[in-house]
Amino acid sequence: MEHTIDLQKMFLGDGSPVFTLEIILRTTIMYLYTLFLMRLLGQRSLAQLSIGEFALIVALGASVGDPMIYDDTPLLHGMLVITVVVFIQLVLTGLAQRSRRAERALDGTPICLVRDGELDAEGIHRARMTHNEVFAELRQSGIEDMGEVRRAYLEQDGEMSVFKFDQDDMRPMKSILPNET
Is pLDDT larger for residue 86 or for residue 121? Predict the structure, then answer.
């Protein structure tokens, strides 16, 4: 049995042109509804997303797609799913705002990676980073030598905060610049 490539079916499918218009309408409705719900959550940049907010975005992406494309998935079902996901996120955010314990459980805490110019092995292990990854992050913060660093923390949003020694307290220890050969 020979299989041929049907470009019309591949690009247009078996549906009618009217279903193509329905997809446009479904996509517009789901996108606008999702945008409305996301505005309720507040404004934060992508770099500042917590783990919960990142999970929210993944869940929304998975929930929004099917009602846009499949005619056997009602829009109301997709809207219900994303409404529940956003509601859960709002409840968890409210809980984190009222309780330090809940905030730590949901968002985590900063992890110390460098103490007084020395790598913090326990912190690096907890952060699941390699020494080279820590060095790369330090270099991106303008650090050339470990002796410049009083403390470095991996923040909850994945960014690194670096606190340098005062100029008088710095002591050359170990260059973190890559070998230039």
Answer: 121
CATH topology for the 109-164 domain: CRO Repressor (3.30.240)
pLDDT at 175: 82
Distance CA 10, CA 32 (A): 28
Identify the DSSP state of 179.
Answer: P
With CA atoms as reference, report the closest residue to 60 among 123, 131, 39, 130: 39
Q: How far apart are the first and last CA of the chain?
A: 59
Side-by-side strand order, sheet with 160-164? 118-119, 111-115, 149-154, 160-164
If 0-12 CB within 10 Å is exposed, 13-18 middle and 19+ buried, where does residue 4 land?
A: exposed
65: which 2 tokens?
């797609």
Q: Please write down the HEC assignment for all residues of 42-99.
A: CCCCHHHCCHHHHHHHHHHHHHHHHHHHCCCCCHHHHHHHHHHHHHHHHHHHHHHHHC
Would you kindly state where each structural domain of the chain is located, as residue ranges? 13-105, 109-164
pLDDT tens-digit map of 123-174: 999 999 999 999 999 999 999 999 899 999 998 878 899 999 988 777 777 8
Q: What angle do CA 14, 17, 23 make, to 5 degrees?
A: 85
